[in-house]
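Box 4.2: Ligand-aware structure prediction
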Amino acid sequence: MSRGAADRGDPPGSEGGPDGAPGGGQTPLADLLLRRVATTGPLTVAEFMAEALLHPAHGYYTTRDPLGTTGDFTTAPEITQMFGELVGLALAQAWLDQGRPAPFALAELGPGRGTLMADLLRATDAVPGFRDASSVTLVEASPPLRAAQAERVAGARWVDRAEALPEGRPLFLVANEFLDALPIRQFVRDGAGWRERMVAAESGRIAFALGPPARLDALETRLDDTAEGEMVELCPPLPAIVGEIARRIAAHGGCALLVDYGGWRSRGDTLQAVRAHAPAGPLDAPGAADLTAHVDFEAVARAARAAGAEAWGPEPQGEWLMRLGLGPRTEALARALPAGPRRDSHLDAARRLTEPARMGTVFKALALTAPGAPPPAGFSGRAPASGPDDPTTRPSPGRPPA
Ligand code: SAH
């Protein structure tokens, strides 16, 4: 199971409404959080998510490698080597289009097991000058995953945060399923204000509760397009992280390819937990289950532009990968495999990444460049100005026929 809702066959957030059913209490972190709630009061969902994922002793990512068949979920680069190859070649194409700047920083946010970067480096070996001009920086908070990355990516350096990415040279960056792990806050519309969904205690277990109604500057524009009782989400760390990348690219050139699942403009409860390849309640096992939320690509594009960069897309992953050449690459690799289970699973991997009912539509790619740079490979146009319409549902003249 991947983390995209479409691939798990159930609607996101189906595990509990805003008023919340009783949740956990059965992990060491749940006990710690219960004590914290008792002394300092309810936590925002973002505070809960940050602890659940990155608590130094009990956090989900700090304590394990969650990927693959023995882990909790899988991701596009773990499904097929073709994902990292095509993403790498798209990045190398942007480098060629921008006049082969050297030296440049090659970076990844949240590289997981390092599989995407390893596939990217292998594929771009065929692009003269690319590897020699690059130095690899991996942004990773998890010690076990840093160790896994070190086994697959030679010569990389690691930093904790996007703020520590190299400055003063072009930045070519990729991130797959990183932004969906950033903590979100959730708000329920209440008249002309909002009630924040909090994590509190109920009968000795952590449970959702709603805070008091309040006006909120950040959500003032959402009063126009939401109904009473509707939920919207904000991702507080996202603008700064996207801004760090966009600022570097606007100043020195480069390209960021951000791939994740989500939509254009947050709407509804998208917080979801996955454990052992099955959906779980978001509060059931803090620290022992993966927690994610849909990425709001409108917020990504807005943050990028505020920092001076151009935003492209978002493009549905399936269409984007097909434009990058997934079809011929799938066929070429299939020809090298004898008929049988390995060939079947290779062919199914390509379908899994592209079919609309699987990962092809809910996953999207958004690119950042400096203003005036050519469009990155596979992108049919600039991201629209902020607005409620989902650009990925609009036909665009540059697209090949289906
Ligand atoms: N990109 C990989 C892994 C996705 S899982 C893949 O596609 O397979 C999310 C990754 O982001 C993990 O490597 C996790 O440890 C990392 N991560 C999550 N939150 C982070 C944060 N705040 N800072 C740095 N890394 C983070």
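In the box above, the bound molecule is S-adenosyl-L-homocysteine. Residues 170 and 278 are 40 Å apart (CA to CA).
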